[in-house]
Amino acid sequence: MRPILVIQMQRMGDLILSYPLFLWLERVYPGHPIWVLAEPTFAIPLARLSPQVRYLDFAHSGEVLREKFHLVINLSHRARSMELAGRLHCESLVGGYIRDGVTRIAGVWQEYRASLTHNNRHNRFHWADLNALDVIPPKVMSETRWPLPRVMPEPLRKVGLFLGASEVEKRPSAAFWAELVGELEHRGHIPVLLGGPGERDLCREVRRLAARPVASACGSLGLDQFAMFGQGLAALITPDTGPMHLGAWSGLRVLNLSMGPVHAFETGPYQPGHVVLRSARDCVGCWQCRFDRPRCHDPFKPARVVRVLEAMRHGQRGRLEGLRLPGLEIFVTGRKGGLYDLAPISARATAAQSLGAYWHAYWRHAFGIGPLRECQAAAAELRAAHAPLVRSMTASALRFFRSVAAASDTDLSGLKWDREQPALRSLSGYAAVHLSNHDVSPASRRRVLALAEEHLRLLSET
User: Which whole-number Å values give the CA distances from 381 to 153, 377, 395, 432, in the listed order?
Assistant: First the structure.
């Protein structure tokens, strides 16, 4: 049988979040070999931990170009990957590709994903699910049972602290980590500093500020060794980073300090039973911080983190529900309707939460995987709890509907998605991508108008 090719030339975390897709492809397309084009820096050391697929890199481009594939899924937005995807011989193609100098996106969910760039405020779909929704039936995804993280015996008190992240804004400061070391030791835990070669300087600074010996494995463990080392830890405290996903995949209990320009609904620990701690600020889940410094860091205090750790260590949800940490929200990862979900344990009801729930139900229904009744229920809740917002959204949606209807095929200047009210940008952002992707064809215009009309009807139902 012809192989299936997945192109995933992004970072380590993106590769690990593709593992569920590899497993689902084996179930849905039995007998088809799964090939994965990935960065060898990550693929090689993780090969023993990943689903059994054949890994290749760009050095194998010649072989890939000669092959005839049953299906190609491009999950990489890099130009080189998109150009390669456009040149491949395949029966079906999903994701971005470049052909004859023109960039296209195949698949409604991949279109939706592209629309989230600088526009993910109200998104509630996880990257791992978005990787799969164009090619994997929702029933297969909903029937998957992911194991809960390990519960380690009480005498085991070693707690890993992964210090770094891809951007400084996404991780705590050295002073925070040093104070957390002290808090953990005070409560009888044994902290172990973890990180790759890029965290060596940060590790040295943490140990200097701690002013006492602290166990460290920074820069001394390969990725496969890190996963093995984690088998002896009670938990891992970590910002949103690739090793967080590796820890969750390998069964290590994760406490995710979700801070900076990250969105836990998109990139939180994917398996169920992990804990996410994030700021309660209205700007949380941004694509890029608009302030001079990320203010979402402020409510994270080491003593609070230790309280959450001790409440979550043995899966005692009741203890987590009893915590009150002003300025912070606590979530537990899980599943809802077969897709990733963050269940609020200690989080105030906000307009942003209601909008996120509404748009999640709306897009599931619009793309044919969710019932209308759930969409109607989410809209009714939004109307009941935030009537002034809904009135404003209705007016904005009417203006948007009229601008789409009035725009010419050559002049779309009035359809800039980011000119719309923030609450409407989930729709306007997708509309901009869909229209551009289809050269503003009559069919694409009808599709956008139908989506806007359905949204208006849901907002105005009584």
Answer: 43, 6, 19, 28
